[in-house]
Amino acid sequence: MDKPLGYLELMGLFSKLLDSGASWVQKNSGTSITLGYIFFFNENEGISAGNNGTIKKTTDGGNTWSMKVQLGSISLWQVCFVTPEKGFAVGEWGVILKTTDGGENWTQYFAGTTENLHAICFITPEVGWIVGKDEQRLRTSNGGDSWIIEHTGNDYEYLQVYFYDENIGWILGTPGFWTGNPSVILFTDNGGLPIEPFIFEKTFGGVSSEMGVDLEITDDNGFIIGGSTSSFSN
To answer: Which domain holds residue 37?
Structure first.
C-alpha cells in the first residue's frame, strides 16, 4: 500500500497524498465546517481543527473522523503537539485548548488575553510561544502550564511563529487585513527580548492581495506565502 506523504483539508473535504504530488485521494471528514488546520502524528493518526471550535481526530489515515471538541462560534487556527500525548490548539478570543492524551480529550483555558491567537510553536517540551492580534506574544517555560505575555502593541497582527531553538526565531505579521500596508517579519537571536523587526524589501499588502500569511523555515531557507499566488524566499 502507498504511504501517504501529505494531507490537505478545507470545508470538511479531506485529501490524502499517496505519492510525490501526482495523486490525491479525496475523503470526507464528516462535517461541512471549515477545517483550516491539519496535523498528523504518523500515517494513521491525525488531528484537524477549524471553525466552531471544532477538533476532530482520525486513527485510520483519514478514512473516518471522530468529533472531540466543538466550542460554538470560536474559530481555532493552529494545533501544536509537544509530545505524542501533549498538544495545544489556539484560536479566537484568547482561547487555548490543551490535551494530555493524544487529542482524545481537551481542556480549555485562558492565558490572560482575549485577543485572537493565530499560531503556536514549541521547540522543547517546556519552551513555547504563541502569537496573535495586537502583537500578542506569549511565552511558556513550563510546558504550557502557564504563559507570560511578553509583548503587546497595536501596529501588527502576528500570523505565524517559528523558532529554530530557544534563541533564534521568526514571526510573520501584518498591519491588518486589507490595509495595503507592508507585512513584516520579525527576527530574534536572544529568545525574543527584544525581538527586532525587518521589513520586507518586497511590499506585501491586502489591497494588492500580496499579504504574507504563512511562514516556513528550513535549516538553510525561509519561505513565505500570501495572496495572489505570491511566494517569497530568503
So the answer is: 6-233
Number of residues assigned to the chain: 234
Domain-embedded: residue 1: no
Look at the chain and report how many structural domains it folds into. 1
Give tens-digit pLDDT for 97-116: 999 999 999 999 888 899 99
Contact in structure between 186 and 175 (CB atoms under 8 Å): no
Determine, yes or no, domain membership for 64: yes
Under 8 Å CB-to-CB from 22, ≥6 apart: which residues? Answer: none
pLDDT (mean) for 205-228: 55
113 to each of 9, 42, 45, 61, 172, how far by Cα in Å?
A: 29, 33, 32, 36, 20
Q: Is the pTM of this model over 0.90?
A: no
Choice between 206 and 106, residue whose per-residue pLDDT is larger: 106
Q: Which of 13-27, 31-45, 162-176 has the lowest mean pLDDT?
A: 13-27
Read off the CATH number of the domain in which 43 is found: 2.130.10.10
* Amino acid letter for position 232: F
Alpha-carbon torsion (224, 229, 230, 234), positive or negative: positive
